[in-house]
Amino acid sequence: MLNKQLRKLKYLCLRLLRINDRAHSIAGGFSIGFLINFVPSCGFGPFLSTIGPKLVKGNPVAGLIGCLAFIWAFPLFFYLNIIVGESLIPIQFENNIEIIIEEIEVGPVEPEEVLEAGLKIGKTFIVGMFVNMIIFGIILYFFIYYIIKKYRRALLRLVHKKWRLKKGYS
Questions:
Q1: 120 burial type by CB count under 10 A (0-12 exposed, 13-18 middle, 19+ buried)
Q2: How far is residue 52 from each of residues 13, 49, 112, 119, measured CA to CA in Å?
Q3: What is the structure's pLDDT at 105?
Q4: Please, are residues 34 and 66 in contact by the beta-carbon 8 Å criterion?
Q5: Which of the 8 DSSP states describes residue 162?
Q6: Contact 80, 132 (CB under 8 A)
Q7: Any idea where the domains of the chain sit in the sequence?
């Protein structure tokens, strides 16, 4: 199982390093593709990661690679959105949580309370998502740009020739 995931990672690295395009285009495409994982896209992430880079003159193949390489981390990014948003906009409910639990056990909850709680959590999520996208996008863009600009050939040699994996089907 681990060997299979390493083979996929090696394939994605080779595909990214072999893209015949400018470093700016590759870094922009990869960053946009990566950032799609912060958005709950309901399965349209790979599709959006090929369209998104075209809007910023990035490489769509690099965008797809960025999305696919980190698609497994969507639950972590989702949680990170909530954590960052909650640190910027604290969620404060008028009622104490014990009182809410008592009300749920005793009788139906008012729809206004449920809607209010949902809107507060949604606002927190959206704020966290935008902050994370800006911070991670800028950092990742410059990191990938620098790596592609300076070390593309050396990394390509390393991944292609020296990174040997067994051809097992485990």
A1: middle
A2: 20, 5, 37, 28
A3: 63
A4: yes
A5: I
A6: yes
A7: 1-86+130-162
Which tokens go with 122? 């949604």
Q: How many CB atoms lie under 10 A from the CB of residue 36?
A: 27
Rounded to the nearest 10°, the torsion over CA 52, 56, 69, 48 is 0
8 Å CB contact between 52 and 33: yes
Separation of alpha carbons 112 and 114, rounded Å:
5
| Long-range Cβ pairs for the range 18-23 (8 Å, 24+) | 18/156, 19/59, 19/61, 19/62, 21/59, 21/62, 23/145, 23/148, 23/149, 23/152
In whole angstroms, what is the distance from residue 123 CA to residue 38 CA?
15
| Nearest by Cα to 122 from 82, 77, 73, 79 | 82
What gap in Å lies between CA 29 and CA 60, rounded to an integer?
A: 6
Task: Please give the backbone phi and psi of residue 151, each rounded to the nearest 5 degrees, phi first.
Answer: -120, 20
How do residues 108-166 score in pLDDT, each as one tens digit? 666 777 777 778 888 999 999 999 999 999 999 999 999 999 988 888 888 777 676 66
